[in-house]
Amino acid sequence: MIRLTLFLFFTILIFTNALTAQSVGEQYNNFVNEAELSIVDGDYKQALEKYSKAFTETGIEFNIDLYNAAVCAHKQNNKEQFFLFADRLADKGVGAELFERKVFEGYSGSRIFLKIKQKAKKVRQKSFKANRQYLSDLDEFRKKDSAYNKLRLTKYRDSWELPDTLEVLFRNNTINLFNYVKKNGYYSEKKLGVAVTIGGYKDDFKLPLNVFLHYLEMGKDKSLKNEIKEMYISGMKNGEIKPSFLTHYIEMGNNVFNGIGNYVFKIFECGIYRLREIPELDKTNNSREMYLQGSLDDYEKKLVFAYCCNNDFEFHYSIIGSPVSKEDYFYKASDIIGKVKDCSVE
Hints:
The chain is mainly alpha-helical. It folds into 3 domains: 2-128, Alpha Horseshoe (Serine Threonine Protein Phosphatase 5, Tetratricopeptide repeat), CATH 1.25.40; 131-251; 262-345, no CATH class. Helix content is 60%, strand content 4%. The model is unreliable at 4-20 (pLDDT under 50). Residues 1-20 form the signal peptide. This is Tetratricopeptide repeat protein. Keywords: Signal.
């Protein structure tokens, strides 16, 4: 009887742990979330510790996070760690242009930094050469989708329904891309060996990012849309896809994903506003947790930092623009949470 009791106890314990165990992507994202909140608070030492844990304990390194870690080290005047992260960025195929940013200009006379820039250029060129056919194939899917989308926005702009032929072409192109990715690998940073999550400098390759987004928005095949959704969720959990990369996909995914509540935030007349009362807040926060988006409060802090304060860091948190139709109601229902630095973002 004692043996049976112990057996049942350990079986339940193992089962419970399996249910509560975090995926590697969740672990990584939790560390990075804490690091970014530390940056918002100006605690660069704490941010560096969290980034280091994210990299060492999960084995994942997104370029945007390596970059922010390098900037934290720079602001801490920790040259050893700065060069360490800068060198790892070079190994990741970010290219030499990234190191031309103003935040790095103080290192321009350093021989170590010059070698890192030279390496960055060589690694990027090597990665493109190795992936030339793969990138060319992906670009064909992008071009076809662009052509179909142009027809939607011009010739069939006022049509309620697309012609069957165009609908079939649209679906088949999406299916073909989906199957190509399943066979040849998702176009992640790890797969390509070049930067995907970091921006702000000219990229010399184009990815078919809008193909899946367009189908999530306008496609009719629910099964295909759910397969795309599951691909993204799986990619987040195994650490291939940054959750922030998916924000627009989730928001514009035509009810394929559950809502994450980004409608709560709006930019109007150079200010960021937050809706005072949020319907179904618990449901929204559960959805955010499911898609590794972080709490609305954390998201608010990062949005304000990205739009109002940020000069050197990469914070890819954004508000999808939408018009304010009833200004009186908008002002009564919302609170201003920050003034944007660049009013052209409206």
